[in-house]
Amino acid sequence: MFRKLLHPTDFSECSAKAFEYVKALCENGIAEEVVLLHVVNKKRVEAMAMGVAWFGETALEFEEEFKDRLIKEAEEKLKKLSKEVKCRVKTIVCYGNPVKEILRVAEEEGVSLIIVGSHGRSNFEEVLLGSVSEELVRRAKAPVLVVRRDVKI
To answer: How far apart are CA 76 and CA 106, in angstroms?
Structure first.
């Protein structure tokens, strides 16, 4: 039923928990292929670049160098993760708005299920910070499995 999975990851603990579901679906023959995706968040890179501009390097130079470094690190991390999956794997690193890029890749790749981790923030925090998982549930054409982190009381 779920021929091709998409697992967007930010390499957090929440994403790692969602990745366990990805591996289980592959190991049990439910999925044939996985697309591992990381989106380097453009707004965060730009914010960092503006802060560094005070230290002599231009914001534009730093932004480009920082972006390239984050992309390279993400490619290495995805390569490592891909070795843990027992089916075909494709890795993709993009730069931009995480929700828009995840939706674009999901559409282009024709995925049948998106598996994403959720930080499980309160509704108030989500209003202030936004929620990638919530936005994906609302806008994705494919079903979305949201895996929440363990909540400690």
So the answer is: 22
Cβ pair 149, 120 in contact under 8 A:
yes
Q: Give the containing element (helix H, strand E) for 144.
A: strand 144-148
How many other CB atoms are there within 10 angstroms of residue 29's CB atom?
A: 9
- Average pLDDT per block of 10 residues along the chain, 153 residues long: 93 93 95 97 86 65 89 98 97 97 98 89 46 92 89 41
Distance CA 114, CA 107 (A): 11
CA angle 89, 95, 99 (to 5 degrees): 80
Quick check: 119 and 98 in contact, CB under 8 A? no
pLDDT at 52: 65
Q: Which CATH class name applies to 4-148?
A: alpha beta
- E strand residue ranges, 3-125: 4-8, 33-41, 88-96, 113-118
Whole-angstrom CA distances from 51 to 58, 77, 132 are 10, 26, 25
Q: Is 149 exposed, middle or buried (0-12, 13-18, 19+ CB in 10 A)?
A: middle
